[in-house]
Amino acid sequence: MQQQIIRETFHLVSKRDDNVCNFLEGGSLIGGSDYKLIYRHYATLYFVFCVDSSESELGILDLIQVFVETLDKCFENVCELDLIFHMDKVHYILQEVVMGGMVLETNMNEIVAQVEVQNRMEKSEGGLSAAPARAVSAVKNMNLPEIPRNINIGDINIKVPSLSPF
Amino acid sequence: MSDVVEKTLTALPSLLSLDSQTVATKLSSTSKLGALIRGITELRSKHEEEKLIQRELASLKDQVSSPHTSMRQMKEAMVRAIYCEMLGYEASFSYIHAIKLAQQGSILDKRVGYLAVCLFLKENHELLLLLVNTVLKDLQSTNLIEVCMALTVVSQMFPKDMIPAILPLVEEKLNHSKEIIRRKAVLALYKFYVMAPNQVQHIHNKFRKALCDKDPGVMFASLHIYLQMIKDNPEGYKDLTGSFVTILKQVVSGKLPMDFNYHTVPAPWLQIQLLRILSILGKNDKHSSEIMYEVLDESLKRAEINHNITYAILYECVKCIYTIYPNSDLHEKAAKCIGNFVISSKINLKYLGLKALTFVIQQDPKLALQHQMTIIECLDHPDILIKRETLELLFRITNAQNVTVIVEKMLEFLHQSKDDYTTIDLVGKVAEIAEKYAPENKWFIETMNTVFSLGGDMIQADIPNSFLKLLSEGFDNEEENKKLRLFAVDSYVSLLEGETRKLPQRFLQVIAWVLGEYSHLRTDLDPAKVMTLLSKLLDIRQISSETKTWVLMAMTKLCSGEASISKAQSVCEDYRSSSDTVLRQRAHELQLLSQDPALRGQLLPLHRGSETLEVDFSLSFLDAFVSEALAAGAAPYKPPHQRHEELAQEKALSLEPYELSLPINMSSYSVSGRQSPTLMSGSSGLSGDSTELSAKGSSATLKLEGVKRVWGKEGYLSKEDPVEEVAQVETLSPLSSPNQPPGAGRTLSNAAAPSETPEPQQEKLQLASSLFVGLSLQTSVCLMGQPEPTAQRFRRKAKTPNSSSSALPERVSVAPVPTSSVDNMLSHDPLEATSMLPEVTHETILPPNTEVNALLIDTANSSPSPSNGVEIPFETSENEIAKTPKHECPVRSLPPDLLGLPHTKITSLCSSQTLDVSACHVEKDDSVSLLIFTSNLSDSDMENIHFSFSTEQLQVSLSSERPLHEILKHSNAVCEYSLTVHAPAIHFQMVGTLSYESSSQSREMEFSYKLPLSSFIRPLVISTEQYGTHWLDFSNDTKQNLALVSEGQDPLTDTLNILKRKLGLHVVEVIGLEGIAACRLAQDQPCLLHCRVNAGTLAVWLRSPVPKLPDCLLYHCQRVLEET
Question: Which residues cross the membrane (chain A) (predicted)?
């Protein structure tokens, strides 16, 4: 099923010229008129997102852009081979952008930072065989980065009629 | 920035050709994955790839199942397995190892394990259960990365049943200090909400907290939840409108940190999300909409057109403006925006502009006029999607004047389109507007011909049906009708003379029916010629047996004259021994009727005139058969939904008498179905013989009582569609053939209906009025028992049943239909039973949502009161007493019959110089009594004493034994009220008023009284088995971890004993680390408690049929345990 979707999607997408729009109605293949394919074409690669009507079309187009730029940063000048040989890493990056089908993060720097922590973790494992104990504790103590967002943060003032505990 | 990347990427291929070799070799030298990928790239055929992968999978299988494989190797193998799966080869042997890797590996192995699990397993895969413990462990980990991974996996896929197990942990993460964790937790909760809304209903206030989170990222994540919840129930969140507007205002005016900017636009995705939420909230709500106008205006202004993402915001803005309560100023601005979109040279914007236009067009048709030239251009656009959207737009603005052009365009598109999905959709639309606005007969028939031949057999079933219905019912003008039918006949005859092999089955069926019914209108057409044409159809190999049935039916109507009859005979010879029973029956009918012209003339009158056709809706001619069968011990007929219900109940303990049970029912019908040919002749002979029948019926009183119950109020509803179905049978005889199982099945419910539910005049009237309802086409979901939706397609033409039947075609084949159709119906009956299934579930899904909201509102309303309502009266009263020591203390004692029962301390509610009111409550066996002690301290008597209470959650009634009217001076009186719980709450707050007359002056005094829920809780003594049977029946549940009392030897027993002592729960059983207890609120409002010791805490799970009861009781459990 998945293979069929991929194959037919590629079939649909690859036929399209550059001067047509970046949206496609997938029809029965992807579950009806509520769903749409949104794609971007980079050289030999197509990035295709399948979304339902609760997403903004243009918003997703830019999200793909963010994703690709992030890939570019993480792999330092990304190319197809990077993606093929490190498809697990691509998945990890994607998981930071989209989680459980919902957009999690749209800020590239934040995504890159998250991915970098994981990369550092990987490097530290390189020395794991040498000094396991040290490496393990290093992993344990490693913290996730948080990009300083203190500028202006006090200004956003959200008033929500809150519920009392009970 | 983006341009740079794009350029780099475009330049890549040229670089790759140089680079690829080196990169590949470098990578491949280090890993087996590299070798695999390189191997694949060197292959030349799919077949080779298959062989290679199979080899790879075999070696992988060896590797992962070998006990000597290290985690590191396992991780590497897993990535290769992922790769193979990605190529479409199943590597199911590795699934379990992926879970193991996630469970046992180091953090990096874990990551690969989790990823593999996410990619391998579907959401309801059984192996996922094995992951639960791992996730639990990782959620509790101190390592943030592990927590992150666990949350990611949870939001990706998690077994629904296990949500309660991890919910408390995820909830806890909402208070985590790291925003990324909070954000992921919110998204995980979103997923839970989508999967099981009632599991998370108790944490709605935490969602609010997430919405107010100091980090905008967390707030953004919470909007996902809110969008969903507001979609489900817009009314419940109107109070948040202001908050969302404020947030949007601040975002738009750039109050967010620079970090959130994307191409200098502040948090665009956040804005989009907010605009979507606002549009739902403002829909049909003037008040909420008014709050939004300002910020929408601001958004429109701020979004200067310079980048893709600003268009995204603009588009949402425009959609929002047209969704909410209209504001002319904003509409004007939005219209301008749409204009910019439509004329934009960027193709994506054009597409969205058209979409927006389509959306807006119903409210503002003028807008389409402004852009008509652009729209025309779009029609010839090379992009198929743009064309499609334009046609959609045109479809919305179709009227009688433009229909021909629009249909022409649509058909043009259809000729090019190869996509089934689009074709079906568009064909439906063409049929719809053609029928609605057809300017002339010729055009209509030709258009429909194209529709049928283009749509093929994928066409929606109601298109041919409604087309035939239109032909048979016709318009008000009889002359026009005739012309239309004549044209159809001409057109089809010429079609049949041409190439018929390529015509779709549905179209052939339509042709057959039309020729059968109306070819006699063309007097110069020889019936034998039509017969020949039709019989030629039977010889086509591709033709389905269903179509053959239609053709045979048409021939039955046509066979008059020598040539036709001989033709008919030869056809009969071919099919009377057909293996298809329906076909065989038709052949027999044809044979009989062709041999007996008298019978045929009687059954198929050529010129029936205008007399109204009498249709026996109650199918009384079957009564004899029914009562005979009943007398012989057959079970009475039950409508499918009832059967279904019983089937569901069957799993529980069945107390129903044996004769009502399902199997007998089914078998009796299958028998009668098979025997029907013989029975039919008997029953049709007895048709209308209902007097004799009812006499028979009364002799078999017992059986008929059962029948009566089946056809009581409940059966009545489902009886309404049969009426319309039969009406259809009457007009379109071929349609009752097996291609309509649902309709046919429903008619059966009538067939079995006994005579005592006669056709009331009222039903006819109802039918008439329902036929007058508008021209809508939607095939909406049919809720069980509601006749309207199923009947919808009969309503297209606004006509009374009378006028429609008077406009009926001259030849109506009535008599054969009931006989044959009942036969078919019987065989199709089980189909209907299954088709009912989804509807039932649909109904049961609805309630939880409403409950959720009720809960939310209730807690919001009731919460402020306890804090300011209780203490104050207490304080004042105490002061009062202290100040007036000279008064004698009123004597307060419980009435003798209540003395032995547990009661609270008597507290003073209010007092003055002359009066003192105090109260206590007594916990009786199945209720709570409120005792109010009133002391008259004055020198005059109190008269006309009256208490009134206002409380929403309790029912207060005076215990009649002690009415109170007057209190003499310096004396006391007691008044007893009994309280029962109306809706559970943590505390019940009562506000009472005491009015009385003293010294001929009427006075009033207010007081308030508060009782905890625990006063109403009584032990429920049940056995473990009973507990087990009830547990799953109760739909309201809540789960939480509570502190364990850890003083004694056995913490679980100790804790349960405390609950037993303080709350009056009945401890049913304690087994090892698990314990169960039960209590009740009133006689029939039980609540079951299941607890389990888990890592030093007590995981408590409460279930009850009463909403809110588990939540409230949980609160008390928590309180009790915290106090000790």
Answer: none
Q: Count other C-beta atoms under 10 Å from residue B1031's C-beta.
A: 15
Rounded distance, CA B778 to CA B934, Å? 66
Alpha-carbon separation of residue B230 from A11, B274, B597 (angstroms): 38, 12, 68
Comparing CA positions, the residue from B465, B452, B541, B457 lying closest to residue B491 is B452
pLDDT at B11 over 70: no
DSSP B1007: E
A77-81, B70-74, B223-227, B1068-1072, range with greatest mean pLDDT = B223-227
For residues B103, B104, B107, B113, the Cα torsion angle rounded to the nearest 10 degrees is -50
Coil, helix or strand for B943?
strand
Tokens 């967002």 identify what position?
A: A149
Describe the crossing of helices B701-710 and B623-631 by its angle, rounded to 10 degrees. 120
Q: Quickly count: other Cβ atoms within 10 Å of residue B530's Cβ.
A: 25
Rounded Cα distance between B482 and B151, Å, is 70
Query: B418 in helix, strand or coil?
Result: coil
> Which residues on neighbouring strands pair with residue B1005, listed in sequence order?
B994
Cα atoms found within 13 Å of the Cα of residue B732, Cβ hemisphere only: 28
Distance, CA of B717 to CA of B714 (rounded, Å): 6
CA distances from A2 to A30, A74, B85, B411 (A): 10, 28, 10, 33
Question: What residues in A contact B217, CB-CB < 8 Å?
Answer: 105, 110
Confidence of residue A124 (pLDDT cuts 50, 70, 90): low
**Residue B919 and residue B979: Cα distance in Å, rounded?**
13
Which residue do the tokens 């309709």 mark?
B743
A16 CA: distance to closest CA in chain B (Å): 8
Nearest alpha-carbon partner for B425 in B466, B377, B459: B459
pLDDT at B278: 92
Please list every residue in chain A whose beta carbon sits closer than 8 Å to the beta carbon of residue B79.
Answer: 87-88
Contact B152 A114 (CB under 8 A): no
Sort B539 into a burial class: Cβ within 10 Å, 0-12 / 13-18 / 19+: exposed
- The angle formed by the CA atoms of residues B1005, B1011 and B1012, to the nearest 5 degrees, is 160
Q: What distance in Å separates the CA atoms of residue B108 and residue B114, rounded to the nearest whole number?
A: 10
Non-local (6+) Cβ contacts of B924 within 8 A are B898, B901, B978
Q: How many CB pairs under 8 A join A and B?
A: 255
Spatial CA neighbour of B436 closest among B472, B492, B396: B396
Residues B144-155 pLDDT 10s: 888 988 999 888
B1088, β-bridge pairs: B1078, B1103
Mutation test of the interface with chain B: which of A81, A96, A108, A110, choosing the one with the most B Cβ atoms within 10 A? A81
- Rounded Cα distance between A160 and B237, Å, is 11
Interface of A with B in 6-35 (CB under 8 A): 17, 19-25, 27-29, 33
pTM of the model: 0.57
Nearest CA among B384, B817, B298 for reference residue A16:
B384
Beta strand spans in B238-295 (E): 261-262, 265-266
Residue in the structure block whose two tokens are 């019978």? B599
DSSP state of B283: B
State pLDDT tens for residues B448-483: 888 888 887 778 878 888 888 888 777 667 777 888
Burial class of residue B240 (count of CB atoms within 10 Å of its CB; 0-12, 13-18, 19+): buried
Confidence of residue B960 (pLDDT cuts 50, 70, 90): low
CA distance B561 to A29: 53
Higher pLDDT, B1028 or B1124: B1028
Cβ atoms of residues B1010 and B866 within 8 Å? yes
Q: Looking at B215-224, B452-461, B468-477, B1018-1027, which range is the least confident one?
A: B468-477
ipTM exceeding the 0.95 mark = no
